[in-house]
Amino acid sequence: MNLSPEVCLLVADWGIGDHYIVGAFAEAVRRHHGVRIWLAGRPHLSFVGELYPAVERSIPWPADLDAQSMSAWKVEPGKVFYAHFPKLELMRAVGFRDFHFLDAYRCRLGLPATANPTRPRQPNGAEIAAAADLLRRHEREPGRTVLLSLEARTTPTDGVDAAFWTALAQDLEAEGLQVLVNAGPGTVVPEGLVGANLPLPLFRAVATAAGFFCSVRSGLSDLACDLRIPQVVVYPDVPYWAGHLRAGTTFERFGLTKVPHEITLRRGYDRAEVRAVASYFAARAPRLAAAAGAS
Asked: What are phi and psi of 266, to 5 degrees?
């Protein structure tokens, strides 16, 4: 692959969250290593690189090329660098003595512990208008809809079951909010809920237009974490690599201006825990709160 001598091509791998984090560290890599950044990854996730100003070019990585075998040993100009974890060696330390998922990426990218991810651009007006139209086509009102994300591909969801999402939807609707499930082709939407197969490049705009977002800890929660809307991230009470899922992946370590509200759902959770999530959203819906105060 021909690269400009000033460019390092970072190759992201695995899921949405991994691409988001590599893109978020692009500015730190550019500054620390003195290189220009191109970002390659899975074709359907090429849009992620376009969210970050430090990424000059975002390209799909060919499926028949082994990025690991082509990778340089470190980030350097004129080279391809595989920005995930060969044999998952650094992932095995996540959760051990406060070692966070972002720390694993700092190590892999040769960054100091003080390097912080940068936030991507917010959805623009045209994207939000298109997202609002999509919501209306599914009979959901922009600004009064809680977008739900039920699935994760590489993080556990044990215990955050269909009964939780069904009960949450009921409580949200009782608070005057509407609900829409992000439903990919293989998603099992709980009975009684409405799902929509949302285009990934428009996902951030749909969440913004909806007004609220609730998700299990997943790549989509990474993708949405910096959005300026009320969010709840639900962690199952489970181990993860060398520690606990929440400790190893919490958004409190992302350097965000506003961290999503995070909860750990106990095994054998009760309805009060579900109602607390619905109440969190209802308290942040200005029109609903004003109506309640006037009654």
From this structure: -70, 150
Give me the CATH topology for the region 125-286: Rossmann fold (3.40.50)
Cβ–Cβ < 8 Å for 182, 196: yes
Q: Where are the domains of the chain?
A: 7-108, 125-286
pTM comes to 0.94
Mean pLDDT of successive 10-residue stretches along the chain, which has 295 residues: 91 97 98 98 97 97 95 97 94 95 98 97 98 98 97 93 97 97 92 96 98 98 97 97 97 96 95 97 76 43
Architecture in CATH for domain 7-108: 3-Layer(aba) Sandwich (3.40)
- Closest CA relative to residue 253, chosen from 99, 120, 131: 99
- With CA atoms as reference, report the closest residue to 212 among 239, 230, 185, 193: 230
Closest Cα partner for 234 from 120, 144, 152? 152
For the record, the structure tokens of 179 come out as 């609900």
